[in-house]
Amino acid sequence: MNIQIRKFYYGDIPEENTGGSTIPQQDSGAQNAWPLWEVFIRSKQGLDHKHAGSLHAADAQMAIENARDVYTRRQEGVSLWVVESTHIHASNPDDADSLYEPAADKIYRHPTFYDLPDEVKHM
Amino acid sequence: MELIDLEKKFQEKIDKEIKIEPLDWMPEAYRKTNVRQISQHAHSEIVGMLPEGNWISRAPSLKRKAILIAKVQDEAGHGLYLYSAAETLGTSREQMIDDLHSGKAKYSSIFNYPTLTWADMGAVGWLVDGAAILNQVMLCRTSYGPYARAMVRICKEESFHQRQGFESLIVLSKGTAEQKAMCQDAINRWWWPSLMMFGPKDSESTNSDQSMKWKIKRKTNDELRQNFVDMIAEQVKLLGMTLPDPDLKWNEATKHYDFGEINWEEFWNVVKGNGPCNRQRLEARNKAHKEGDWVRAAALAHAEKRKNKLAKQDLAVA
User: Fold this and answer.
1) CATH number, domain at A26?
2) How close is the nearest chain A Cα to the Cα of B207, in Å?
3) pLDDT at res. B104
4) A123 within some domain
5) CB contacts, 8 Å: A14 with chain B
6) How many beta-carbon contacts under 8 Å exist across A and B?
7) Amino acid B207: pLDDT
């Protein structure tokens, strides 16, 4: 058998080993593709909504229904937000140094910077 | 920055255990490897619903039926988490689905074996999910952030899968002579394919250890397989059953179980599409996708209609 064996694991089979049961490709249905949504979950009252993942849905209502089915099967949340992914704007990772680095040398912004007499107790 | 500097910086981040996030610079090969691995993993979850779905309508009790439905629903969710993770790398859902349906993309070969009896549901949960969990626990620490996060979510849900499988085998192992025989038969049929899930032996890998260097993977095939054998060889005793391997025995020197040679010819045959159910699985997927086409179109049309209606209302209010 003349196969190039490569190191891989469960779920990682190189494409060049593809063969056999190829079914002729049909219409991809891409024209009926639903937009991508980001899902945020509030795990319990009093906490922030936190990003959980994403999914495809035709509209916001369906996105919430799908998010409920996919992300809260085990009581992970009491409230859901969905936002269409195209509406999310992110900072550029290349700017990370100029954006966040300047905060590193401003230790006086933290309460532990200040030495106070023990008598002050709670402050 | 020069490409070589970017690559050096990238590797430094990996070495420092800093996760790679979607917008970060990454080598093209890292992106490709992740897309391939994550999407194949997703396909495995989706195709993995088929052999189990086979038994939903024939589960022996309402309890077992509810459990099986919950498990199959989890697999769909796991597929979705993983497709979403792959999409952050710039590939589209449609492309991945197309590649699965055309046979271009692969999924775990284990799902090309048939589920012949009810005991197979137990054996699949215990052995197949057990093998998958070892791989997935490792992948919780993979270097690509969205993949690692998806795996954490999956691992939380997956342990119920293995436990329910083992528990249902315990019930069979305490049953009638026929039930015991069914239990042993299922173990016999699923044992070797489960070992194959970990892939070829390390010694036969000609690929560099790039995936290990990039920390996409953190354990070798043989390491994971040995962990699995050690775990299962002990658990099978609790069932009062045996594993179908005359060479399986404890090695006092290595502190591991030795085991027999895997039939690699069978492994490659199934990978290449000649397993018992390859054709059936792909046909089922293609059929489901095709028959769902009108639903996708209708949902879009409905969303559009509702949007227009809302816009008109807003206009009227204004």
Assistant:
1) 3.10.20.520
2) 5
3) 92
4) no
5) 36
6) 167
7) 54
- Give residue A112's Cα distance to chain centre: 33
Give the pairing of strands A36-42 and A79-84. Answer: antiparallel
Number of domains in chain A: 1
Nearest CA in chain A to B223: A9
Q: Are A36 and A87 in contact (CB under 8 A)?
A: no
Residues 67-96 of A with CB under 8 A from B: 69-71, 73-74, 90, 92-94
Task: Give the integer Cα–Cα distance in Å for B138 and B152.
Answer: 10
Query: What ipTM did this prediction achieve?
Result: 0.86
CA atoms lying within 13 Å on the CB side of residue B144? 28
Q: For B92-136, what is the HEC assignment?
A: CHHHHHHHHHHCCCCCCHHHHCCCCCCHHHHHHHHHHHHHHHHHH
Confidence (pLDDT) at B202: 86
d(CA B216, nearest CA chain A) in Å: 11
Give the pLDDT confidence of B85-108 residue by residue, as tens digits. 999 999 999 999 999 999 999 999
Structural domain includes residue A120: no
Spell B79-99 as b/e; 16+ CB within 10 A means b: bbbbbbbbbbbebebebbbbb
| Token couple for B200 | 């070829």
For the four alpha carbons of B193, B198, B203 and B207, in that order, the dihedral sign comes to positive
* Helix%, strand%, coil% for chain B, nearest 5: 70, 5, 25
Q: Is residue A30 part of a domain?
A: yes
For residue A106, being part of any structural domain is answered with: yes
Q: pLDDT-derived band of residue B14, with 50, 70 and 90 as boundaries?
A: very high
Can you give the residue range of the structural domain that contains A33? 2-113
Would you state the structure tokens that stand for residue B312, as one six-digit string? 């008109």
> Could you tell me the pTM of the whole model?
0.88
Of A6, A58, A71, the CB nearest to B205: A6
Provide the pLDDT for residue B224: 95
Which pLDDT score, from 0 to 100, does residue B87 have? 95
> One digit per residue, pLDDT tens: chain A, 123 residues?
333 333 333 444 444 444 333 444 444 455 678 999 999 999 999 999 999 999 999 999 999 999 999 999 999 999 999 999 999 998 888 888 888 888 888 999 999 899 999 999 888
Contact B299 A34 (CB under 8 A): yes
Strand partners, A54: A38
Q: B177 to chain A, minimum CA–CA distance in Å?
A: 35
Please state, in angstroms and rounded to a whole number, the distance separating the CA atoms of residues B277 and A97.
53
